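Hey, weird one. I pasted the Integrase catalytic domain-containing protein sequence into the form twice and got a warning about non-standard characters only the second time. First submission, copied straight from the form history:
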Amino acid sequence: MREYTMAIKEICDLLGSCGDSVSDVEQIATILNGLPIEYEPTVAAITASKMAYTVDNVVSILVDAETRLEDTSRFPVGINYTKFPAKRSNSHASRGNSDEERKNHTNASNQHKGKVRPQCQLCGKVGHLVDRCWHRFDKNFKGVFSQSRDDNAGAKPQANVCTCCSGAKEASYGPYVVCSGEDSNGSMEEDAQVHSLTVAGTTSFSKWFPDSGATHHVTGESDLLVSSHMYNENGKVQLGDGSALSIQHVGQLYLGASDRTLCLDQVLYVPQITKNLMSVAKFAKDNKVFFEFHEDFCCIKDSSTSAELLRGRLDGGLYSFSCLNGQEPPLCFHARVKNDSDYWLWHRRLGHPSIEIVKRISNVTVSTASSTVCMACQTGKSHVLPFATSSSVYSKPFELVEIDVWGPAPISSNGFRFFVLFVDLYSRNTWMYLLKNKSDVSVAFDLFVSLVNTQFDSKILALQTDGGGEFRFLETVAHKLGIKLRKSCPHTSQQNGIVERKHRHVVETTLTLLAQAGLPLKFWSHAALSSVYLINRMPTRV
């Protein structure tokens, strides 16, 4: 694998020296397209991932996958599901027989090297995996290994776990951990020959409560920790009532999220603790994320993309996350399909169409897809960058007024080619003044201030405009009147979104009224004033 990737890198370097540089994306695509079918699960996992892999990351993943394929190719048949219980024996004769058997397996693997083909776990046929199997959509198809799985009566069903069968004990571990049997004394089981992958219908979850007042993660369940070790220091966990609890172990924990694995580092095991506490500050710093707390749920989002990684809920007055207990992320990636992600699988396969199209074609149930954002769709289909919605709430009229000028109109109407709109952000009421020139904005502003003072017995507290030259006079006038003046950022019309959309609403209504009356465009000024009059009397969201 390293020779293959180095050859492609040399070709890309030669092209770059000739002035035709090759991007990382093109280089990764070239590497993946040249791989044999044995690497198809790894290629599927890389292409379906939302992470931006570098060339070095992809090479590392493929080298690990090559190592795993070499290990599995020692047996001349597929072993996606194998059940060979190994018997432990202390006699030298049996040990010698085992050595002879291993030699025979090695010789057989050398003869069949390069001819091993993947075997489907569902139908048992050779040449494809379960993700490409035709029968995986047939609910009535039980699979050829169902009887073999039924024979494991003594095995405790768990979800996505690797199980190592030995004569004395069966040890199960979480996903992503290489299995190895252990006897009761803790020594490695040397005679265990085959590891099997079993999938059942239950999954282990843990509930974690985010705590902004905690400096460390604390748990009272020791079986959740991985890579744990004894705590040899003198520190203790200080509680709110002043008492201190002893720490026995320190370890790590990995939580399965939607896009990536999140790490709980330096988790303190305190047996007296009844709830798993997640330190908000430490978790956010270690995983480059931030928390959002709402009235009935909370969520964890990526700091760079703002993508939602994990969602919790309000339970008994406390926010909590029900997380899948994971282990250390795998060195070799593989493609997985869960029932909850069927929609997103087909959404990606079909080229990111709308929800309605996916439902009609694939006949999947859409539960959370309508409330989840596809980052690839946002990146590829958005015309502009996303802009945060304002959360400001106004409590009285004329607390903030947005001003903007429309024009010039292609046809003048009674000498008018412009109009200016004043929009009150509290009531959304709109006032229009027709202008012959942009410089007449100052006259319209004086008329509007007089109208507010006389008719509403009120004062304008703040004005918001863009950086147009027609509003420069406001810097002096607003200062004299005690009005706070705000300007939007350059090339950021979204900050004046209300008055910008009001322009469009007024113009569309004006053209519609002219079309209904059959009048020429030269009467647009009369229709525009009528449009504003009608819009102000229509229901609006405040």
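That's the output from the first submission. The warning seems to come from a hidden character in my clipboard, not from the data itself. The first strand starts at residue 161 and ends at 165.
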